[in-house]
Amino acid sequence: MTNGYPDGAAVPAPTPAAPPAAPASAAEDALANPRYARFVTDLLGVIAYGELSGFERLSSDARFSPSLADRASLGRLAVQEFEHFEMVSRFVGTLGVTIEEAMAPFQASIDAFHERTRPGDWYESLMKAYVIDAFSGDFYRSLADTLDPRTRELISTIDSGEGAAHLQRRLKEALSDDPRLASRLALWGRRLVGEALTQAQRVGIEREYLAGLLFADKADHTQHATALFSQLTRNHSRRMSALGLTA
């Protein structure tokens, strides 16, 4: 998704205009509001490119799996990522926007993130999938309560957690008899969550619409941002503890 931001200082969130609240009527009524639809398009654009990147990453990393069973498992996870991408693509299409248009603002930033966190081997790749996918899910769930029911349902569907359970089991198996690997992956996990925190801040700051969703109706944006990222960090620490590692 280290205790706090990588440089030790929280980056203040912007103070954008709050997005219009989704009406209590049908989701279609909310999404018919162009301004609200723009907020949702931004959010789904970053989710879609994350899923597409995840598919590419897992597909490529599967080649280095230590066994055929591991290779097949990562392949299945990659297929799930692409299925999620297609689900988001169809949803965005109903908003009158192509998925390419929705993803384009986030391509450079997400590509740079993956370049900075390129795994050194298969085990680091597994840890990256475990940490980043879970962090992303936490981050998107933090936005879900501000959204209309239809968009909330989509986010819930693509955040099933099935992949995380498999990754956790496989990492625990790999770590159980290798203290040196455990030490290395603990350090790698700390680096990953630091980079993920920075990335989440950057997305919110660079895209006013996403920041509006995240910090809407909050009197103290900086305090809310600090609380949110502290919670993301605590969630990461619990996941690392589940592996027997120190965050």
UniProtKB/TrEMBL annotation:
InterPro entries associated with the record: Ferritin-like (IPR012347), Ferritin-like_SF (IPR009078), Ferritin_actino (IPR059125)
Stretches the record annotates as Disordered = 1-25
Note the CDD domains from the entry.
Ferritin_like
Domain Ferritin-like per the UniProt entry, residue ranges: 34-215
Write down the Pfam families for this protein, in alphabetical order. MiaE_2
Tell me which species this is from. Answer: Arthrobacter pityocampae
Q: Where is the composition biased (Pro residues)?
A: 13-22
Protein name, UniProt field: Ferritin-like domain-containing protein
Superkingdom assignment:
Bacteria
For this protein, the record's SUPFAM superfamilies field holds: Ferritin-like
